[in-house]
Amino acid sequence: MASINDLNSEEIIKELCMCNGVHYDRIRKDGPATTTLEMFFSGYPKMAGLSYFPNLTNLTIVGQSIESICDLDSCPLLEELWVTECQLTRIEGLQACHHLRKLFLYHNSITTIEGLENLKKLEVVWLNDNEIEAIEGLDTLQNLKELNLAGNLIQSIGSCLDPNVHLERLNLSGNKLSSFKEITNLSRLPNLRDLGLKDPQYSPNPVCLLCNYSTHVLYHTPQLQRLDTYDVSHKQIKDLAESTVMKKLMYYNMRVKTVHRQLREELEKLGDLKIKLDQTPKDKMKRLIFQVKSLEGDLSGDGIQASNEYHKSISNSHDHIEEPGAIGESNSWEKEESDRSDLDLKEQLCRKLCALKERIQFWTQRMDEIDTFHEKEAVRTEQSFDLLAQFLQIELETVGNVRFEEGSPSDSWFKSCYDLILSRFCASNFNTFGITGVKIHRIVRMHNRILRFRFEERLQDYLDNEDSAAAANYKKMLEYLFFTLDPNISVEKSNVLQILEDGFKFMKSSQLYDQEQEEAVLLSNSLGFYETSKLEQKTNQETNHYDPELFKHGKLIISKVFLGHRVQAREFLPINPANYPDANSVFRPLKMNSSTLCSSDDEVCSSKAHESCDCTRRRCDWFVFDTELVLPEYIVEYEYITQGMANKSCSLSSITTEDFSNEIKLDEDIISMEPILKPRPKIITLDEGTILSIAKANMYSQISILNLHGNSLSKLKEISKLHGLQKLIISFNEFSCLEDISCLPNLEYLDVSHNRVISLEGFKGFGKLKHLDLTWNQLTKTMDEMSVLRRHAAHLLTLNVAHNPWQKPALVRMAAIGRLKSLTHLDGAMVTKEEVSESANFSAGARITQALLQISARTDNIRPRCLSLLPSAQIISQISKNCLDPYAEFNNSWYHMITSVNFDGQKLSKITNLEKLENLCWASFSNNYLTRVEGIENCVKIEELCLDGNGITKLEGLSKLVKLRHLSINNNQLTSLDRKVIDNLSHLHSLSAENNHIRSLAGLQKAHSLIEVYLSNNQICNNQEIYYLKGLNNLVILDLHSNPISLKHEYYRLFVIFHLSSLKALDGSAVDSVECENAKDMFGGRLSSDMVAEKIGHQNFTELQELNWRSSSIRSVDLVPADQFKNVHTVNLENNNLTSFSGLIFLSHVKNLYLNYNHIESILPRQKSQNHLTNRQMLHQKVNSSGYGQQGKNSRDTLFGEPLSPIMQSLEVLHLGYNGINNLQQLQLSRLRNLKSLFLQGNEISQVEGLEGLQFLQELVLDHNRIKMITETSFAQQSCLVSLRMEENRLRDVNNLHPLIKLKKLFLGYNKIQEISEVEKLEAIPTLLELSISGNPISRKMFHRQLIVLRLQNLQILDGISVTSEERARAETHFLEQQNGGTEAAHPVSTLILSKASPLRVTNVCLPGGNQHHISGPDLYLNNAQDDVFPNESNKYKKTKHHGGVMNNPRSVNAEIAFRQLKGGTSISSTYLQQGNQNRAAQLQANNLEHEGRLLGNGTVRQNRM
Q1: Rounded to whole angstroms, how far apart are CA atoms 1026 and 1045?
Q2: How many CB atoms lie within 10 A of CB 9?
Q3: Model pLDDT, residue 1472
Q4: Residue 73's CB: how many other CB atoms inside 10 A?
């Protein structure tokens, strides 16, 4: 046989030589010179003949049937080895190849990575296309640069590649990696440049099919140049991945903080409930303690002695004169009687004291029970919300591929799941335990894309192997089953999070039975299956004893299960795949479960919901062999409902139903026992006489005991004089501080219980004090108060400090024992040696030592890239291995290496010994006892600082940390954000200061880099605080939840969204587009008190006299409270978007109101039906002070008490020009009863109406409207009108002006008045002094001025030119001459004018008397181009500059003279012709300036239009 093998080897070697050009005959000679051998596809079934090639460096074997690697011991210089597409099953035979650099073993059947430990020079390893299930055996390959493991069965990476820090190229495509957590492990490979997870030549890993795969990989491995054969080296790609992850971190950080906030709110509710429950026991205890202290004072002897002396004095007062012998006998008898009385009284006092103390003990126990229940409820609540926070952490780590959705009754799936749970609960199974029902607290639905893919893929594989009939009915094999968690095991230990994320692959053992380990997942179709079994075990241990509280609260996972082929379990046969080879699942009915409490006869449920059911028979547990066919979908928190009075005290809320009436009656009976305390007057102030009287002494030096119990004292000014005082009792008084009782050097006993002491500041000079009672006060600061006692009462033996609202109650006992070394009793309990030892460690740990620094410090230069919401210092301390060597000598150079420190929970009271940490970047000091930020001023490179859970009151000490990016200072005692500090933190991106006492946001005004701000549960009250954040353009997340500003302001959220437009999330909720629109509708253009305060810089609105908000896009006014604006007399809101007066109507003292260039429709908006309201109007209906709000809630009539009742009664001047007003009636101007000046120019008014109520109106401007006529009612009530402007309208007549009996100025220019007779109607207004009719057709007629001057005898100004007495005389003279001389006496000038051609033809003229006088002969033509005021469009806009232009030309004057002479009118004096045009122009300009001042008064230019 050996010869045959040798023969085969010889043939193999010959083939090897032939394929590589080596003569077989000369192999011994030429073999050593050969360095490379290659064998492809056949002819080399085993590795043989390699010993002839000792200097071989490259060996390539491809496509052979080699099963093992051998014969390489003689090739120590081998550097590159290829054994591919062979039949290898193991990696072996490479021990001698120490120089091997490249190893290619792909396309084999290798299952394990092994045998590479000694190949430390390996740089390239290809093991792709094998059957490897785990990455291992690579720890020693420090020089490995390329690793190909594609096409294997690898499911996890772990930390197996951590030693391979030089790895540059890694291919893991075609494996079974399904979790992003595994990909995160690659972030620890700093030199990785090329990564393949879904190489096109292989199938992708399951993780590659998940959302955000590329983003996740690029974030955790930013050094990558190629990913899955794609170039990812561009900076833009890396930045995109970085920003995406940062957004997710911010989002989930916000959500986790929201969960913590909800937890805090629930704990506060529990705390409030506890306070409510404690109230009755506390009140009763206080009353009982008052009785005890009062009786103890009597029992001390003073009270008894005083009582006897009192009776003796009464007896003596009855008989003032007695015989000496009688007095002696009487004294003897009285002494005996007094002794017996004292004895009886003491016995009564002792009995009553004992009874009272028993009652105090009872109420103390009740309070202890409440405390216990409160603690249990608090722990349970914390666990519940912590689970939600962990759910969010899983969502973040899986980049959203695992999501948790908390259900509500409005969700359809919630109701289905709820009904399923109730249908699987049968009360008969819990009869023994007194459980009658189940209550569902929370249902969370899970969306696990990874497990769902796996479930569907495995189900499809199963169906592919089944016949078509079975495949068609596969839904019948789907079932929802329960997996119940042990409530006594924490969430971490129960692996519930791992189950929800990775499925049940780690849960193949039974949790129910200890006698055997089942190789399957144990599930149940019944709620309570697990609890009843465990309770039964407890009952067996102690006969007839069980605790329903053991499983009252529980959690279960509801999973979708594919049962497949199912069989029933056989007794005494372990359930595993080997015993049930053809089954996918095995079920075991309840009757086979020996640990079931209910007997087989219990077939009927006792609950009404399950009457006459066979629940017991249908209950069973299921064992599923294939974990991938179990898909967890819901996690449920529930509680069993118990019955019976014995269980009422099993929860905190149930205690509220307990009736204390019997106990209270018992207290009253005991208090009524003899001796009964009689009320006595309370002492309010203390003087020398009162002290001596109470102490029954003649001088201060005699007083050693002073009992001031039960008074109303708040000061003890005289007490410092009692130098001999040894015992002082001031319980049940009203002291808030103890300064008055300081410096009592001999005082040994002090009782200050039941007062209002808030601080021990000023407490000093008690060197001999041994006993101190401070119970039932208001002390809060643990460390400060204990430090005071250590300095000034160091020899205390007994200290009572219970029932104070300490900020950290758990710290009180340790701090007191640590500070007061002589203490023997604390709060009634003896101080043990263990407590003394622990407190000593506590005191020693109050400083940062070198040993503590070595343990807590790390030297990482780069923050680990992991999706965690913990502070960086905590993350680094948990995962980093870059620790300081605890055995090396600590020197100064080590300080410079430290970049991270984590001192959380180290009981530090001060930060010390960190001055040399110049390179510190990340630090955490959470949950210590710090009161100041100090000791880190030199750590100027700190980027992230966490100070949560301390007692810090100020931000001093942070000013020099200019590189700080993240600051967390939650759960402290901050009252403000120091602007001087924040301004220096120019790189601050995130600020979290929740659960403090911050009242203002002023300190953040210049923190322009802030992106996240968390300030929930502080004391921020005013909306104006939001204005401090308006300059923070980068602010994306803001949380002000549980501040007064968010609680008392109804539209707080919309207000913040409107003013901070960059916000994406507010108070834990995303800001959506609908909210943005609503915010704009609600507050956009809304002039509010907050806006005014922002502009003027204060809120003292009473100082304001004017409001000027021109061109501010204001749509509504909401100045509340209006009383604060009582001194405002002028409001200018021109050029805005007002549609009504809105909230201006409530400013009752405004006199001048400018509303030009708005869109005013009426004083109050017209009522609209709800269907026609805009979003803005519907929102404004809810605002009390806005116009929309008033109209929405009340009708116009009911709002003001009566129809059109007066408003704004101080308003005198109103400007409403250019508002598009077309209806004066709807404007409701009559309500402004005291209005004196009204400007309505530039509107669309066609009819003058609605002015009836303006009886005091003196000036009215209606220029530039569309008025065609003046009706009888237009000015019927305006008897006080002095000035009326109606220029640029469409008037043809001037009727109905006669009611204006005081009118002095009338402007009718640029209308359509054609006849002189219309002007004659003005004779009815004798007070008219100024008239303007320029620009009317009548102004083109000759001699119209003379006619008007003659007709209106009181007129002083016409068309802007003064009417002089000379002009009036000339007009009269001229017309008289014309009447006497006829037409032949025409002025010579008329001949000149008539001789010239002119386009103007005058056919007739209206002369005085109203008759029409026609000129005989041909028509008269006048050549005066300027008479045509409207010849073209360009001249139209010149009218403002050249009013009465026809009178400014001498030629036109001459024409008028000629016209009057022709008609026989009175001649005009020649002096009128000599009147200079310049003077008339100056008068016209002055008149125009005056007119413009009345119109606007602010320089607004009036716009002309057609």
Answers
A1: 10
A2: 14
A3: 37
A4: 13
Q: Rounded to 10 degrees, what is the CA torsion of 1052, 1056, 1057, 1059? A: 140
How far apart CA 1284 and CA 1322 sit, in angstroms, is 13
- Nearest CA-CA partner of 1079 in 1200, 997, 935, 1175: 1175
Average pLDDT over residues 1370-1393: 58
How far CA 302 is from CA of 127, 340, 362, 602, 833, in Å, comes to 98, 17, 30, 73, 39
| pLDDT tens string 1038-1075 | 999 999 998 888 889 999 999 999 999 999 999 999 99
- Per-residue pLDDT at 1001: 94
CB count, 10 Å around CB of 860?
Answer: 19
Output the six-digit token pair for 289.
């303690």
Residue 949 tokens read as 């859970």
Q: Which residues pair with 351 in a beta bridge?
A: none
Specify the residue for token string 């030589």: 17
The answer for residues whose C-beta is within 8 angstroms of residue 1479's C-beta and 6 or more apart is none
Range of lowest pLDDT (665-674, 994-1003, 1369-1378): 1369-1378
Peptide bond into 577 cis (omega under 30): no
Residue 2 exposed, middle or buried by CB count within 10 Å (0-12, 13-18, 19+): exposed
Question: Mean pLDDT throughout 1376-1397?
Answer: 46
First to last CA, the chain: 124
| Three-state DSSP state, 39 | strand
- Alpha helix segments (H runs only) across 1233-1343: 1316-1320
Edge-to-edge order in the sheet of strand 80-84: 36-40, 58-62, 80-84, 102-104, 124-126, 146-148, 169-171, 194-196, 226-227, 230-231
Would you say 673 and 593 are in contact if contact means Cβ atoms under 8 Å apart? no
Burial of 816 (0-12, 13-18, 19+ CB in 10 A): buried
d(CA 1287, CA 1339): 14
| 1294 close to 1322: Cβ distance less than 8 angstroms | yes
| Closest CA relative to residue 1009, chosen from 1028, 1034, 1029, 1037 | 1034
Tokens of 656: 């509220």
Strands 1116-1118 and 630-642: unpaired
The first and second tokens of residue 1122, run together, are: 């209006």
Neighbours of 941 (CB within 10 A): 16
- Give me the long-range contacts of 1467-1471 (CB less than 8 A, separation at least 24): 1467/1370, 1467/1373, 1467/1374, 1467/1375, 1467/1376, 1467/1377, 1467/1378, 1467/1387, 1468/1346, 1468/1367, 1468/1370, 1468/1371, 1468/1373, 1468/1374, 1469/1366, 1469/1367, 1469/1369, 1469/1370, 1469/1373, 1469/1374, 1470/1370, 1471/1366, 1471/1370
Give phi and psi for 109, each to the nearest 5.
-125, 35
Among candidates 585, 674, 587, which has minimal Cα distance to 627? 585
Distance between CA 1153 and CA 1107 in Å, rounded? 10
Closest CA to 1409 of 1275, 1317, 1272: 1317
Query: What angle is formed at CA 390 by the lines to CA 386 and CA 392, rounded to 5 degrees?
Result: 120
pLDDT value of residue 601: 37
Burial call 1135-1151: b when 16+ CB within 10 Å, e when fewer: bbebbbbbbbbbbeebb
pLDDT tier for residue 548 given thresholds of 50, 70 and 90:
low
Pairing relation of β-strands 630-642 and 435-448? antiparallel
Give the lowest-confidence range in 641-645, 830-834, 1056-1060, 1492-1496: 1492-1496
Instruction: Determine the length of the chain.
Output: 1506
Q: By mean pLDDT, which of 494-503, 710-719, 1446-1455 is the weakest?
A: 1446-1455
* 906 Cα distance to chain centroid: 30
Q: Is 805 exposed, middle or buried (0-12, 13-18, 19+ CB in 10 A)?
A: exposed
Handedness of CA 696, 700, 706, 709 (dihedral sign): positive
What pLDDT band is residue 1412 in, cutting at 50, 70 and 90? very low
